[in-house]
Amino acid sequence: MGTLILDMVISIDAITAAADGDLGFHDAGGGLGATMADQLRRLRTCDAILLGAQTYRLFSEFWPTTTAQDQQIAPFINATPKHVVSSTLDAAPWGQHEPATVERGDGVEVARRLTRKYAGDVVVWGSITLGESLLAAGAVDALWLRVVPVLMGAGRPLATGPLPQAPWHLQSSVAYPGGVLGLVYQRHV
Questions:
Q1: What is the pLDDT tens value at each position of the chain, 189 positions in all?
Q2: Taking the CA atoms of the chain, what radius of gyration do you get in angstroms?
Q3: Which one, of 102, 101, 75, 99, lies nearest residue 87 by Cα?
Q4: Where are the alpha helices (DSSP H) in 44-157?
Q5: How do strand 46-52 and strand 82-85 relate by DSSP bridges?
Q6: Distance between CA 53 and CA 51 in Å, rounded?
Q7: What residues have CB less than 8 Å from 70, skipping those under 6 apart?
């Protein structure tokens, strides 16, 4: 049985996307490139990727044609089984790779089922709405946060509603060139 990991890129003030959905702030501090080696090392424990429908649409436009020469994380993303929580998608193609599986129903129940299905971990990438519902349900076992050195002032925060108060243990922290911070938190059980 795997654990559920929420991987998010946030600003210093915990904004996950600009008000219009733009993610350009990810490039602050020189971007996330310096974090990729550590990201790949952590992903070795993951057997599946879980995405919300909007993040799936963004990812499927970019990653299926991206190679390791372009982005060293591309082979992992393209080869790993992907699941998409959606009530509107009929299919989730992934270019020439295996398509993602469309998962109907409650995202929290889907995530719990997938962590029972896979021996390794399940990583939820971005997927702000899904991520917030998983946090609210207490379903997230680990948080992988990459904090970029910018104050957004407004936009979509990590959580828009109340979350259960719970202790988290800082497992690791890394400061990258340009000011990006990599933080890994484990939920206390």
A1: 889 999 999 999 999 999 988 888 888 888 888 888 999 999 999 999 999 999 999 999 999 999 988 889 999 999 999 999 999 999 999 999 999 999 999 999 999 999 999 999 999 998 999 999 999 999 999 999 999 999 999 999 999 888 989 899 999 999 999 999 999 999 987
A2: 16
A3: 102
A4: 53-62, 74-79, 107-117, 128-136
A5: parallel
A6: 6
A7: none
